[in-house]
Amino acid sequence: MIKKILYSFFFILFNCLLVGNSNIRDYSQIINLTEQKYRSINDYEVDLEISVKIPAFRMPKKKYKVFFKQPNKVKLKTKGFGLLPKTGIFTSPLENFDNLKNMKIMAQNPSVRKDNIIIHGDLIVDSLALDMPNEYAKLTFKPTVEVSIDTNNWVITNVTTKIDTLKLIEINNKYELIKNTYFMPIESKVEYYVKDARLTKWINRDLNVVMGSEKNFEFNNDIVRGFIQVKYFNYRINKGIDDKIFK
Fold this sequence. Notes:
Layout lengths: L1 H5 L20 H13 L3 E12 L2 E13 L3 E5 L15 H5 L2 E6 L10 E8 L11 H6 L3 E7 L4 E9 L2 E13 L3 E13 L2 H11 L16 E14 L10
Antiparallel strand pairs: 1-2, 1-10, 2-3, 4-5, 5-6, 6-7, 7-8, 8-9, 9-10
């Protein structure tokens, strides 16, 4: 159950750290440096508070205690009913970028801060939990992803998924320096703008992964516009976590 909750429904990159600078023009360099920075944190524990506001789905604010240890050990603790959005929180940058193809660094946009760069890529449809009716539908469904990176602090600040000019999902991350050493997320906001039946089923499947409950949540139509907010508190980083916690 935990693995199903943790793995992303798409690339979602919102909580990985990035090392880079404005002179880098090869996206593969950025990915490799991102992975190096991500791996520099051996373990951490953090408290999460999650709020969900989506039509036909209501859940009170839920708190979690999360333990993470490299390379991919994760343990969540909560009381009773709860849902953890699959946002790629515990997924390495390499795994997330594997969901993109045709990547490139976009030209500087006047609306984007000078210390930010954007990596653009096509989302690999096979990486999504989508049931396509036929091969033609699969070929014509072409989401794109833009990842905005703060090169002063080397973190991902925004991830936007689109089809043509229609925005589907947008993630914004806010960071703070923890213990004067680690630049970590303190808040993530996810906003859905979904007007496609295939993506509605995808998000519905994502939100139906609920800990401690077999109940399914169905949307009444093909339009979903909702919000998920994740707040992070009380980090303990590189303090050492016993493997017994993950059993």
